[in-house]
Amino acid sequence: MTQLANTGAHIVVEHLRSWNAQAISQVIEYRGETAIVVPKELLRATAQKCKEDPALLFNLLSDATCVDRYPVEPRFELNYQLVSISRRDRIRLRTSVSVQHPVVDSLEPVWPGANWLEREIFDLFGIQFTGHTDLRRILLPDGFEGFPLRRDFPTEGKR
Amino acid sequence: MTTVETAVGTTKTMVLNMGPQHPSTHGVLRVLLELDGENVVSAVPDIGYLHTGIEKSCEDKTYSQAITLTDRIDYLNPLGNNLVYCLAVEKLLGLEVPKRAQYVRVMLVELQRISSHLVWLGTHAIDMGAMSVLLYCFREREEILKIFERFSGQRMMTSYIRIGGLALEPPAGWREPVKRFLEMMPARVDEYEALLTDNRIWKGRLQGVGYLSPDDLIAMSTTGPGLRAAGVAYDNRKLFPYSSYEEFDFKVPTRTESDCYARYMVRVAEIRESLKIVKQAMDKITDQGPIKADAPGIVPPDREKMKTEMEALIYHFKIFTEGFSPAPGEAFVAVESPRGELGCFVASDGSPKPLRVHFRSPSFINLQALPLMVKGQLIADTVACIGTIDIVLGEVDR
Fold it and tell me: What's the complex ipTM?
């Protein structure tokens, strides 16, 4: 499995590099997984490429989540787990978002299934997604103040 | 609260609130239905009633302590949740688990899949008006829960799969109840099928209901039996094997109709396939051998050693007071839960508590396709659709 993922990942990285050299700012290989760090501005275009290019075909968006690296800036890391069912491959797209400007392009136009995943990130981390059709809180009540999965939000809640 | 804006100022459609306390929503799911007579114009699911902040709580616990929380995410699949979390942490640590422990894991997780499908089948039959199936399904599920109780001391919140292996040695005489279950079960599945598969009411309520094309399902990130009923053989056990699944011989059942009936057929076929895997796993599990990885400082030492060896005592003390610290990094693992792709993303910053634990819960993501599925269908079909998505609200809301 590890080998399969590795060979696949190299093809993906090379393919994306030849498409747009700016699209990849870093490639992180760790424990047999590959994460491609993408500049925020190119996230949607890269995602579109990953989905539609016949050599990549990442047709399934498995997961999207955020990691808060508080107090490091830019503190938010968005992680998108992509799956290519036909090529049996997985890859992770990552981009960084700062707390001063927590706005990023939504991937809903690429994978409609990003809708709830991004709503969850918006709800719990307070990151805005431009181009999202229905950006409302999803798990917490509408009147809730703050974003509980941020690291500076106490686990017991605010008193 | 959520509102259906299109309903304001029109006279033709009405808005009906379904749930959160409604027996066919299987928990606390609220769906706002906009109706034109009996037909659903649009549906807006409203979730979060069971949100308990499990992911946040995990950040405040050591890696080992968080296992008990994972049981409570999907309460019909606690062992599967234990497994995905432990696999993710083991990946983060680069830990190799002994084969014997892997086979025990596979056997228990497959039994769990059967028990989860049994609950689904029984409750879905009740939704469709067939009362008796639930009683039969729960009778068989009871046998599985007894097996879990033997192994872990718990019927449901097992926490039996631990980082690096298993919590306890399999109990003496465990093969007997598993063997009995394997002998009994195929005939019992035939019984359910005799009650339902050719039943005219069952077919009438399910066939042609809740159709979505495979492309739509993939676009909505749907996985599990829902996707396989549309002809896409996407199963993590085959595509991205974990826990030695590549050594087992089983098929991935698929159908092409992509309606509620096809989803039923896929799940019944999966019960039969799981029985095969349990049988193979049982034969592979040896009576002797390690059930924990040899990783001092991460895996707690045996009681015996802890009481006789100084070093083991120190490790034991450190694990349970301070925990262990994986090197900074991230790991994502996906397994096939009864409901679809169950993923776990764990990020470490080098401290004994995880920086982030995220669960890619199949119930949450599969539920997203509900509005598409019920659009233009009857209210009664909404119940059938919610049923065949097979949501567990604990997992939807986490």
Answer: 0.89
Instruction: Please list, in sequence order, all residues whose beta carbon lies within 8 angstroms of the beta carbon of residue B28, skipping any fewer than 6 positions away.
Output: B19, B20, B21, B49, B50, B393
pLDDT one-digit tens code per residue, A111-136: 999 999 999 999 999 999 999 998 88
Enclosing domain of residue B301: 54-397
Q: Give the sheet arrangement for strand B30-36, strand by strand.
A: B14-18, B30-36, B39-46
> Residue A88 is nearest to which of B57, B91, B239, comparing CB atoms?
B239
Contact between residue B318 and residue B297 where contact means Cβ atoms under 8 Å apart = yes
Name the fold adopted by A2-100.
Beta Polymerase; domain 2 (3.30.460)
Taking an 8 Å cut-off on Cβ atoms, the answer to whether A79 and B330 are in contact is yes
Q: Is residue B156 part of a domain?
A: yes
Please give the tally of structural domains in chain B.
1
**Structural domain includes residue B6:** no
User: Quick check: is B111 in a domain?
Assistant: yes
> Hey, where are the domains in chain A?
2-100
In a domain, B298, yes or no: yes
Number of CB pairs < 8 Å for A and B? 106
Q: How far is CA B395 from CA B113, B115, B190, B352, in A?
A: 15, 17, 30, 26
Q: How far is B75 from chain A (nearest CA, A)?
A: 19
Do A117 and A100 touch, CB atoms closer than 8 A?
Answer: no
Sign (positive or negative) of CA dihedral A56, A62, A66, A69: negative
Average pLDDT, 10 consecutive residues per value, chain B (398 residues): 52 82 78 88 90 91 92 90 94 92 94 93 89 91 93 90 90 92 93 90 90 92 92 91 91 91 93 94 91 88 89 91 91 93 93 92 92 89 89 88
